[in-house]
Write a structure and sequence with these properties.
The protein has 170 residues and is mainly beta. The protein is built from no helices and 10 strands.
């Protein structure tokens, strides 16, 4: 499977950080039947502050109604001269263990890790739970909540996300 995609800002972001761009997801099912998938995700985006190039690798293993998704992303960022003109890298790791309680109801546990290099050094870990409900073949709504830990200073921050997703079916 190969899927190109594009993205644009929602217009609710801080004006200089309204990023847009595009990318490509490519994946291959190693053993068939959607149980052992490996893939690559690559994107390029830019805004008034700078640009980023991201390359990620992932694997999805399925075992009936449950499975595991693991992804690791490498990102290079370049800020425009008016915003210091610096380059820096970041790495993100994402692991999700999921289970479908029903064909349309997904629950999962998620662990995320983010490391950002100097001059914007960060080391964050996040632990979350998610419930996602497929409303139709085109619409899904999801709720994700958890806590984020700053590994540099120990601070804990609660997090929550409500997502409404639409996809086209051909």
């Amino acid at each position: 499977m190969v899927s190109p995609y594009g993205f644009a800002p929602s217009r609710r972001e801080w004006r200089p950080a309204r990023e847009s761009g595009g990318g490509l997801v490519a994946e291959y099912d190693l053993l068939g039947k959607g149980r052992t998938v490996v893939g690559v995700n690559a994107l390029r985006g830019s805004d008034q502050i700078g640009s980023r190039t991201m390359t990620g690798v992932y694997s999805r293993l399925g075992f009936g109604s449950w499975g595991i998704l693991a992804e690791h992303d490498f990102t290079q960022r370049q800020l425009h001269q008016s915003y210091r003109g610096v380059r820096f890298n970041q790495q993100a790791t994402y692991v999700q263990a999921f289970r479908y309680l029903r064909e349309w109801l997904l629950t999962s546990v998620i662990i995320e890790r983010l490391n950002v290099a100097q001059p914007f050094a960060e080391q964050l870990w996040a632990y979350k739970g998610e419930v996602s409900l497929r409303l139709s073949s085109n619409w899904t709504v999801g709720l994700r909540a958890g806590v984020q830990r700053n590994a540099m200073n120990g601070a804990l921050t609660p997090t929550a996300t409500l997502q409404l997703a639409m996809k086209t079916v051909r």
